[in-house]
Specification:
Elements: E1 41-46, E2 54-55, E3 65-66, E4 72-77, E5 80-88, E6 94-102, E7 109-114, E8 125-127, E9 140-143, E10 154-157, E11 159-167, E12 171-179, E13 184-193, E14 199-206, E15 212-219, E16 222-229, E17 237-241, E18 244-245, E19 251-258, H1 269-280, E20 284-291, H2 296-304, E21 307-312, E22 317-323, E23 330-338, E24 351-358, E25 362-367, H3 373-387, E26 395-400, H4 408-413, E27 417-419, E28 441-446, E29 453-459, H5 468-471, E30 477-482, E31 491-497, E32 500-506
Parallel strand pairs: 1-10, 8-13, 11-17, 11-18, 17-32, 19-20, 25-26
Antiparallel strand pairs: 1-6, 2-3, 4-5, 4-7, 5-6, 7-9, 9-10, 11-14, 12-13, 12-15, 15-16, 19-30, 20-22, 21-22, 23-24, 24-25, 26-28, 27-28, 29-30, 31-32
Helix pairs in contact: 1-2
């Protein structure tokens, strides 16, 4: 494990690499070393433009990164791959690594990768380290397929680091940096107490220039979000943002659930659906395949002590939006009747989309089918634009779409709507194909309205109150969102960080 080392202002010194039987020989890094028959030790430095495994000391706008106890690298040559572990050089920008395991008889090294424990991709889940970053998230590389000897092996950085500085009185639990059309990088924070002076938090991301990045800070009391437009994350750069005062906004948990006509669990299905909803801790739920006769929507809402808005799509069945009135205040309601257009398939039928306006957002709920999906979603989008856009609230659309994430009609729809729920897991249980990815239930955000912070997104596949497949053949999905009308601005402060160039960023 890497640890936060003392901060240094010195530049990276080059050391000769190469060795035989435990010795490093052959010069000071400026000449050539003769390849050895069996390489047992290897001197590795960090290029002045590279990131390091732990922070050194910031001085006059410079910050070095140094080797730490236990550091390991993956070494490649014609002989194969090996693991080398740091032998000496703790707290320095250069160190001597000794053979640990893997292929032997290395002669000329062509590649070195740090850390040795993973591939070159940046991990989505990272751990908080006080005053520094999760060293296992970094990517440092050396690549020289034409190398003639093992001199001057210098690792270069392929990562960028985001530094968020927070003040306040809450205990921080996590930071999520979600890159549009890319990954979400989460820093897990073990309830770090914020103070009147700013505490730094570091997240490692790949070097890139994304269109947009949404950052969500979360504590036990809520969350705070902001957005970066068109940032540039440069390799070997720390993007240090000016201090922000953390102020938690309320979190809403929105659930979407196809309840399977309340037939999966017999006469007790309505109670099971209510129990599952209660255990998940939803504030509001969109439910599909809801029977009008008997009035299952009323049974579920009454069991929860909630209010509801129900409309029939066909004579026997429709959709309901049910919500906790102590958490949400309804301002208005409406619906859009969606007529069946294509009749080739026997299950095609009329559909309906519900619209409920709450104080902080607009919630839509529907149950669509694949054949009419493009036509019906266009009608829904048109109604949002015509009647709700001027309200200046996020529009969130939930339901069973009967369409896979990779389908062409879904790709077209998501030009205007963003999937904010998980789309990498099954939302429908098929006992005949338990490992088949059947994702057809979603929660979307309309791109034409305000942003929301997605604190958490999950698909619930087990509960304590019952066997979840006894409640429905679909799994409930949910997102935790935070809505902030006066999002704080991030300011990037530009300066050089030692072996790094640091840039001060504006929120």
């Amino acid at each position: 494990m890497l640890f936060a080392a003392t901060l240094l202002a010195a530049s990276c010194s080059k050391e000769n690499n190469g060795g035989n039987s435990g010795s490093t020989g052959g010069g000071n890094g400026t000449g050539s070393a003769t390849p050895v028959e069996e390489l047992k030790e290897l001197a590795i430095g960090i290029h002045p433009s590279a990131t390091k495994v732990s922070f050194g000391k910031e001085s006059e706008g410079k910050m070095d990164f140094v080797w730490s106890t236990g550091d390991e690298v993956c070494v490649k040559s014609a002989a194969g791959e090996s693991i080398f572990r740091l032998k000496s050089g703790v707290g320095s920008t250069s160190g001597v690594f000794e053979y640990k395991s893997g292929a032997k008889n290395h002669k000329v090294v062509t590649d070195v990768i740090y850390p040795a424990s993973r591939a070159l991709s940046t991990p989505a889940e990272q751990s908080y380290k006080a005053g520094t970053f999760d060293a296992s998230a970094l990517t440092l590389t050396y690549h020289n397929p034409s190398a003639k000897d093992n001199s001057d092996i210098m690792l270069r950085n392929e990562s960028s680091i985001l530094c968020f500085q927070l003040k306040g009185t809450d205990k921080l639990n996590s930071i999520k940096a979600s890159i549009k059309d890319g990954k979400t990088y989460t820093l897990s924070v073990p309830s770090v107490q914020l103070k009147s002076t700013a505490t730094p938090f570091y997240i490692v991301v790949p070097a890139q220039k994304p269109e947009k990045v949404t950052v969500v800070f979360a504590s036990a009391s809520g969350a705070m979000s902001t957005t970066l437009s068109s940032p540039t994350f440069t390799a070997g750069t720390i993007h240090k943002f000016a201090p922000l005062t953390y102020k938690a906004d309320k979190i809403y948990r929105i659930m979407s659930y196809n309840i399977g006509q309340c037939t999966q669990g017999g006469n007790s299905s309505a109670r099971l659906i209510a129990d599952v909803t209660k255990e998940i801790g939803a504030d509001v739920a969109v439910m599909n395949e809801v029977r009008a006769f008997p009035a299952d929507y009323a049974k579920i809402a009454n069991a929860l002590g909630w209010e509801y808005y129900f409309k029939k799509a066909i004579f026997t069945m429709g959709n309901v939006i049910t919500y906790n009135p102590s958490k949400l205040k309804k301002l208005g309601e409406d619906y859009l009747q969606l007529k069946n257009v294509k009749n080739e398939m026997t299950y095609n039928e009329n559909r309906i989309c519900l619209f409920v306006e709450f104080e902080d957002f607009i919630l839509l709920g529907s149950h669509l089918e694949k054949d009419d999906f493009p036509i019906h979603t266009q009608l829904i989008t048109d109604k949002v634009k015509a009647e709700y856009a001027e309200k200046g609230k996020p529009a969130i659309f939930c339901g069973d779409m009967n369409t896979r994430p990779y389908a062409e009609e879904m790709k077209e729809f998501t030009k205007e709507w963003e999937i904010i729920s998980r789309a990498d897991m099954s939302t429908f249980y098929n006992p005949d194909q338990p490992n088949n990815l059947i994702c057809i239930d979603y929660i979307f955000l309309w791109k034409g309205g305000p942003e929301v912070g997605v604190v958490k997104a999950d698909i619930c596949k087990s509960v304590n109150c019952c066997k979840i497949t006894d409640a429905s053949d679909h799994f409930p999905i949910y997102v935790n969102i935070t809505i902030r009308k006066d999002a704080p601005a991030l300011t990037e402060e530009k300066y050089s960080l030692g072996t790094y160039e640091a840039i001060s960023e504006n929120w």
